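Structure (tokenized):
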């Protein structure tokens, strides 16, 4: 292969290299992912996302049994080459990429089913460049249905002297949400290395540092920074924003709002929490470049 077509896109500055593999011919190795995502020797990105027919991936049978209309599968890889189950910013960018490729038309606002390793997700376009996605049901780690949440982990990080109570959640992928004291502590936190989570989650975890901000009674407002599994600190994480909203609403107690705006370094996303445990994430998705790359030059 001498030439590989790509696009580049981002959702609140969580950025991705996008590949269209409509005939399922691409051997997307971990080495190729790392090379594409490399910010100096490659194209650069927090992750690589491949569009591939759902029928062509091992997860496809279960996905198509759940929803036969989920024709396209989001094959998500972290920048270090590892595979992740889900990406909330990525799935919105994926939808924008499908529209760009002419593989989907979301102009009527109807939801489009997309296959992911976390199951089927439905994305609808609220306006040009802004998408809402049903993120499924949040769970406790291990897939247990959540009934009541309390602090269940401890997190230690550089720059913060004491261990902090935290909450581990499964949004399809694993998250640990840590409540910091205030916005100043959040701004000063050192996320150059992965925070140490105790007990250590079996598959690793994405760690969100969060503070609740002043808000009115009907809409919540939180600020978050994230250290992503397989990447490092990123400027946004959609599944992380959902996990953070679940945690801050829980910590806020009875009567807390069900809609939260979550500020991240790269922008703001909206999270709606339904009483049945399902969540909806909304935010921008932008495609910023289209081109070709020589994979041999990248990896060599
Ligand atoms: N940035 C994503 C999450 C990407 C996967 C994550 N790093 C993991 O390994 O679980 C998002 O927007 O949700």
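Design, position by position:
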């Amino acid at each position: 292969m001498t030439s590989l077509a790509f696009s580049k896109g981002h959702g609140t500055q969580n950025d991705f290299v996008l590949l269209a593999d409509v005939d399922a011919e691409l051997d997307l190795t971990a080495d190729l992912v790392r090379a594409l995502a490399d910010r100096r020797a490659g194209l650069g990105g927090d992750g690589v996302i491949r569009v591939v027919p759902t029928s062509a991936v091992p997860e496809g049978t279960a996905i198509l049994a759940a929803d036969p209309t989920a024709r396209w599968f989001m094959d998500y890889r972290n920048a270090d080459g590892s595979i992740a189950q889900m990406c909330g910013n990525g799935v919105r960018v994926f939808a924008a990429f499908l529209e760009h490729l002419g593989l989907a038309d979301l102009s009527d606002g109807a939801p489009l089913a997309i296959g992911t390793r976390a199951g089927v997700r439905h994305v609808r376009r609220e306006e040009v460049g802004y998408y809402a996605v049903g993120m499924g049901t949040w769970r406790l780690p291990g897939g247990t249905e959540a009934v009541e949440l309390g602090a269940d982990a401890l997190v230690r990080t550089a720059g913060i002297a004491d261990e902090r109570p935290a909450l581990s959640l499964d949004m399809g992928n694993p998250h640990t949400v840590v409540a910091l004291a205030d916005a100043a502590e959040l701004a000063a936190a050192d996320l150059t290395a992965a925070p140490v989570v105790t007990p250590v989650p079996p598959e690793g975890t994405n760690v969100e540092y969060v503070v609740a901000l002043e808000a009115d009674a009907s809409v919540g407002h939180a600020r978050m920074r994230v250290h992503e599994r397989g990447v490092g600190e990123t400027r946004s994480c959609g599944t992380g924003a959902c996990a953070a909203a679940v945690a801050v609403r829980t910590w806020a107690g009875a009567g807390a709002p069900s809609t939260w705006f979550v500020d991240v370094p790269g922008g703001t996303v909206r999270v709606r929490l339904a009483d049945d445990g399902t969540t909806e994430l909304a935010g921008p998705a932008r495609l910023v470049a289209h081109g070709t790359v020589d994979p041999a030059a990248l990896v060599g």
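Reviewer-requested clarification: Residues 238-252 form the longest helix (15 residues). The helical segments are 30-37, 60-66, 88-101, 183-188, 238-252, 295-299.
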